[in-house]
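Students often ask why we bother encoding 3D structure as a string. The short answer is that it lets us treat folding as translation between two languages. Here is a chain of 117 residues written in the first language.
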Amino acid sequence: VHLVESGGGLVQTGGSLRLSCQASGGTFSSYTMSWFRQTPGKERELVATMSWTGLNTDYVDSVKGRFTISRDIAKMTVFLEMNSLKPEDTAVYFCYARLYNTGPEYWGQGTQVTVSS
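And here it is in the second language, the structure alphabet:
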């Protein structure tokens, strides 16, 4: 599975961005899809995840109520809608896919999100 993120950029505090992750090469509906983020010197952090069934989503506490993960199976794309952005959301955001819950894992190359104060 090949993952390509897009949609990152520079935004002011309180603004919004929508990240997209285009998948190819696999059965998209069989993959648990997640977004991670990472800042220099810190471990990669799980931000949001959607189960392969699409029935379950989960978020890190710091983004609950502000971020929404969704997917379009026909377009093989997962989205991360980010609202009310804060400077602490600044990071490189990575798309992640895992076949069901225990299968092979795949990562995108990352997209930079910068929130200015």
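Translate back mentally: Residues 29 and 64 are 24 Å apart (CA to CA). Keep this in mind for the problem set.
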